[in-house]
Amino acid sequence: MGRLQSFDRTSVVQAARDLFWDKGFDAASLADLEEATGLKRSSIYHAFGSKRGLFDAAVEDYQGTVIRPRLRILTGPGIGRVSLLAYFDDLRWAVSALPEDSPRRGCLLVNCAAGLAGRDDLARQVVDGYRSELTDTLQDALRAAAVAAGDSGPDRAPERARTLASLGMSAMLLARVNAAESLALLDTATVQIRYWFPGSA
Amino acid sequence: MGRLQSFDRTSVVQAARDLFWDKGFDAASLADLEEATGLKRSSIYHAFGSKRGLFDAAVEDYQGTVIRPRLRILTGPGIGRVSLLAYFDDLRWAVSALPEDSPRRGCLLVNCAAGLAGRDDLARQVVDGYRSELTDTLQDALRAAAVAAGDSGPDRAPERARTLASLGMSAMLLARVNAAESLALLDTATVQIRYWFPGSA
DNA sequence: TATATTGTGTACTGAGCGATACACAAAACC
DNA sequence: GGTTTTGTGTATCGCTCAGTACACAATATA
Predict the structure, then answer these.
(1) Beta carbon of B98 within 7 Å of strand D?
(2) How many helices (H) and strands (E) does chain B have?
């Protein structure tokens, strides 16, 4: 054995994550990453191998700490109408709670879709995995809501799931361009859900 | 007077446009631009002032040759249900007609939203202008369709316009990640339109 | 044809990039 | 405590970037 790591890996990865979230992979320089993480580049390269290695770790953290907890709302208690509304409410909170210039505006993976994913197969797979997981989870919740509402008509869940996923992704896309319109898109999602599944609230 | 420009400005701008469309502002280098346009950098700087100047010219061309002609479908003959379906049909054609590795996949402005627009106010304004023009135009067509259908209920045009704009933008976002899913989103839009305004086709 | 004006080609600049070499520091094991 | 193993700091690498200096080419005007 030898010397031990003197930094907390998680907090370093999350500092890098926030920087990538803010500026994207290309625009985040190693100098920026040194400043954000407090590490010298030798330590970064020793621990993560490359800028890309650190980015991949940041994406993994993002999935674990941002994406999955959010998706869990959809599958959690009240799966169906309630969980769908809670999901978009959570998204709405995330967009409106952050200051206009917060580094965490929007979605790291959505930004990635328009950038890295255009020329990097791995990034493309990650983004598409997120998309399909979101759509599938929305679809399950929509089916549960339809069952609870006694809806016995044709299965509209696939197209409704695509519509809701689309509203969520667009809202993330617009979060850094026009926060008010981003919120309007999320409100549109809840309006749709209430329209499909009329209820008390 | 002096020597005359020996190149066709429009074709140069469009070559640059396609490169920016493909790689984005940052990833498109001046060496790439020289190769794509056939111009040496002295000529580029003489004619456009800077890389950004060429980019702005490219965006302007993009709006004039891609965005506006497409929006004109929505306001043109058959405004309402027909024009809405034609619009998404045109978008669908654009996504499916291009080869998997075409430089023109997706939308220059949508890519810009996740990249440049995050740190550049001018780019942000252009992107938001596009968004609002798209939404407004969709809303007009939706109102026309509602009138034609004799729909006298509450005005659902605003939320429907947001939903359709969202589907269009998401489809552009996903065009480079998963073309099949991009098409599925566009199909979802036409399904919605047909659902809102039942008709013969 | 002489001159003024403008476009083009070549060669280069300084700055910033990701990545690395290597000496040194520190902790676990014998 | 000496040795081995591993983390950290400094200094720098080679490269690419956007942008520029300047000579030369070409054409409209006088």
Answers:
(1) no
(2) 10, 0
